[in-house]
Write a structure and sequence with these properties.
This protein is an alpha/beta fold. 23% of the residues lie in helices and 21% in strands. A seven-stranded mixed β-sheet has the order 2-3-4-5-6-8-11. Strands 12-19-18-17-13-16 form a six-stranded mixed β-sheet, with helices on both faces. It is globular, with a radius of gyration of 25 Å. The model is unreliable at 1-31 and 588-592 (pLDDT under 50). Bound molecules: beta-D-glucopyranose (BGC). Beta-D-glucopyranose (BGC) is lined by residues 89, 107-108, 161, 208, 287-288, 416.
């Protein structure tokens, strides 16, 4: 049954299914609108915000810009406000007299997190952000966002500190698992799509951490050096695309400094780039402990101090009141801060659909688990599959499962984004006691799921005793080793090696049984000295609440392997722009090295695969790489210019024997070769095809990706000349190319 599908890449609508917004009590828009004219829902968010501000007193205006930590901290003699939600990230007082709701803030991008607590909220976790990026499927990202936004709302929160889009500039960054990889287009579209889903609920999402929070080492003070063009073409472009796609109500500024100035008092980043150039209408909140001043921060663009307890002083408390009274921060600026906050609250339904406290008993956990599992299934990347070892053969009688606590669950990443599983972690005592620990596992056992999906007998060895594991592998038809790398906020990985002697374990198992499959649960790229010795390799990331089932379904072939790498896997640290991370990777906190800096000008905008291209380096696995269980033929590449936009037409055929999902990628490359790197990802498609089916796909290229940013005129300039469109299976696997001649064109700073 050949299907002939015509699809356009951008603008796919999300199917939200069970994760749609629960019915909520709608605030009465009629009664009381004369006393509270801002409750007139026919007015614009901006107008409604202005009307509230006209009615506010100075103390009320000040209260909206001053955030509390939502967790009692005995080590600082700090008691959380009684109105906040226990063990939560943040709280901001509203104005009850005027019906301005409080802001209840929770982390983060993978689900509803809880700060360290004996009684954490137990909620559904999406796979890691990097995993969602590996789906290359914005529709799934939106569905995931809608799901976690719904859980946030039903948990009593109306602000979700999600939308992490810092680029994976360094594969050792301890928070890469929260982010969406190394490419500004892929990361921006995936994260923007997730934000769109979150905000389909009456919940504000952030996008964070603005900007260049690309390493955890010395994160509180590290000074990132980067030039304007490189900045605009890399991390800032990822933020720009995420903001255009998702319209987050808030931007969270980062801990680090950028070109000498803290991100949360950085006029260039906040007032110029974000608010002037991009016309961002929402508010900037600081990261927790990232505010360093009153006057400078307020005047340079910070709109709300978060979790003031973490700052040296309560900068936006009394000090801001005094500054306004003294005229050092103008009343107009305070009104602007409030306007931005209130505008986002109106635009996202916080007034009209007020959060109604803890209604967690209304969460559809079964439906949400399906959303998380669907995301994980498309995120898993099949990196190697020798001799068709996978899908697992029905003839296998005995399978040895080794290591990674695969008998009970799957790993997650640590820190403020930690979602706690329903029923608790099945591995309670692993990892550091202190932040960002402990190591938390989700009780979704790959072993049990494999046993349920296949007819083979399954035996388990925990892998700590290598000899016992080798015996189990030798006695089995197939050995599956689960290798883990726990990473977390505040610490970068010391190197790219798997910890705890797992490389030796894998090498020993591979020697005992050539049919060895390695399943990786890692925060990001790892080195694989054993890659040539094993039969198959699957990267499963931190796969979330339904991760064990998702892994089993890919291993058995119940679903195709359709993830593709959103980040380059280097052979070793020697291939990186910084073979050693600047500063001491084992230490969190700039206080130890207050004047440290890191030079991002080394690679500039040539992040990830662009660096590898530029330097002619061959990675272990390339950006965009990933195998499928079927075979696809890519052909018919044609370029067309439509309304000034370059569109690539391609034909994709499933020429294998089973259904699968293809990810044709279009890279763009100037023949004159004067970009930061030989090529950039210009677009892609992800499409499901039955055997024998052919689809025609259009991929529209964002004109900024064909341009060079000009810092003086603040424009994107496409130079007249020939450009190659390369249809590829990965950054390293071109299939065919066409050349298109483009006229010179100048786009404004927003790419219009
Ligand atoms: C993290 C943020 C988080 C905040 C609140 C900070 O340490 O960097 O991502 O949202 O804490 O928990």
């Amino acid at each position: 049954m050949p299907a002939n599908l015509k699809r356009t890449l951008l603008g796919a609508a999300a199917v939200l299914g069970s994760a749609s917004v629960a019915t909520v009590q709608t605030a009465d828009a009629q009664t009381g609108t004369s006393a509270k004219p801002w409750m007139n829902t026919t007015l614009s968010a901006d107008r409604r915000a202005d009307l509230v501000i006209q009615a506010m007193t100075l103390p009320e205006k000040l209260s909206l810009v001053y955030g509390y930590f939502g967790t009692t901290a005995s080590w600082k003699n700090y008691v959380r406000p009684p109105e906040s939600l226990a063990d939560s990230a943040g709280f901001v007082y509203g104005v009850p007299r005027l019906g301005v709701p409080n802001q209840w803030e929770t982390d983060a991008g993978l689900g509803v997190a809880t700060q360290r607590s004996p009684h954490p909220r137990e909620r559904t976790s999406l796979p890691s952000g990097l995993a969602t990026a590996a789906t290359w499927n914005p529709t799934l990202a939106t569905a995931g966002g809608a799901m976690i936004g719904n859980e946030a709302f039903l948990s009593g929160f109306n602000v979700l500190l999600a939308g992490s889009v810092d680029l994976a500039r360094d594969p050792r960054n301890g928070r890469n698992f929260e982010y969406a990889g190394e490419d500004p287009l892929l990361a921006g579209l995936i994260v923007g799509s997730e934000i769109k889903g979150i905000q389909s609920n009456p919940v504000i999402s952030t996008v964070k951490h603005y900007a260049f929070n690309d390493q955890e080492t010395n994160r509180f003070s590290v000074d990132v050096k980067i030039g304007n063009r490189a900045a605009r073409t890399s991390d800032l472009l990822a933020f720009q695309i995420a903001i255009e796609t998702g319209h987050p109500g808030s931007v969270m500024c980062a801990y680090n400094r950028v070109n000498g100035v803290y991100a949360c008092e950085n006029d260039d980043l906040l007032n110029q780039v974000l608010k002037t150039d991009w016309r961002y209408p929402g508010y900037v909140m600081s990261d927790w402990g990232a505010t360093h001043s009153t006057l400078t921060a307020a005047n340079n663009g910070l709109d709300q101090e978060s979790g003031w307890m973490f700052d040296d002083k309560p900068y936006f408390g009394d000090a801001l009141r005094q500054a306004v009274l003294d005229g050092k921060v103008s009343l107009a600026r305070l009104d602007d801060m409030d306007h931005r906050i209130l505008r986002s609250m109106f635009a996202n339904g916080l007034f009209d659909h007020p959060v109604a406290g803890d209604q967690a008993d209304r969460i559809d956990y079964a439906g949400h688990l399906k959303v998380a599992q669907a995301d994980a299934e498309e995120a898993i990347v099949l990196l190697k599959n020798c001799g068709g070892l996978l899908p697992l053969a029905a003839s296998a009688k005995r399978i040895a499962i080794i290591g990674g606590h695969a008998d009970v669950g799957v790993l997650s990443g640590g820190g403020s984004s930690q979602v706690y599983p329903r029923g608790g972690s099945p591995v309670p005592n692993e990892g550091p006691d202190a932040f960002p620990g402990p190591e938390v596992y989700f009780p979704s056992s790959p072993m049990k799921a494999i046993a349920a999906e296949s007819s083979a007998g399954v035996v388990y060895a925990d892998g700590k005793d290598i000899a016992a594991a080798v015996r189990a592998a030798a006695d089995s038809d197939i050995a599956i080793v689960f290798a883990t790398q726990w990473t977390g906020e505040s610490i970068d990985a010391p190197n790219l090696n798997l910890p705890n002697n797992q490389d030796a374990l894998i090498a020993a198992i591979a020697k005992a049984n050539p049919k060895t499959v390695v399943v990786l649960e890692t925060g990001g790229p790892v080195a694989m000295p054993w890659a040539d010795q094993v039969g198959a390799i699957l990267e499963a990331w931190y796969p979330g609440s339904g991760g064990g089932e998702a892994i089993a379904r890919v291993l058995t072939g119940a679903v195709d392997a359709s993830g593709r790498l959103p980040v380059t896997f280097p052979l070793s640290e020697a291939q990186l722009p910084r073979p050693v991370v600047d500063g001491d990777a084992s230490k969190d906190g700039g206080d130890l090295r207050p004047h440290s800096h890191t030079d991002y000008e080394i690679e500039g905008a040539a992040v990830g695969y662009k660096w590898f291209d530029l330097k002619g380096l061959k990675p272990l696995f390339a950006f965009g790489e990933g195998l499928s269980y079927t075979r696809f033929a890519f052909s018919g590449l044609k370029a067309e210019i439509h309304d000034g936009r370059v569109i690539a037409h391609i034909d994709v055929a499933n020429i294998g024997a089973r259904a699968g999902k293809a990810v044709p990628q279009i890279y763009v490359s100037p023949v004159a070769g004067d970009w930061e790197a030989p090529k950039r990802l210009g677009g892609w498609a992800k499409l499901a095809l039955q055997p024998g089916a052919i689809a025609q796909v259009d991929v529209a290229i964002d004109p900024r990706l064909l341009a060079v940013y000009d810092s003086v005129s603040k424009t994107w300039k496409i130079a007249e000349g020939d450009y190659k469109l390369i249809l590829a299976q990965s950054a390293e696997a071109p299939v065919m190319a066409v050349t298109v001649h483009l006229p010179a064109r100048t786009l404004d700073v927003r790419g219009h």
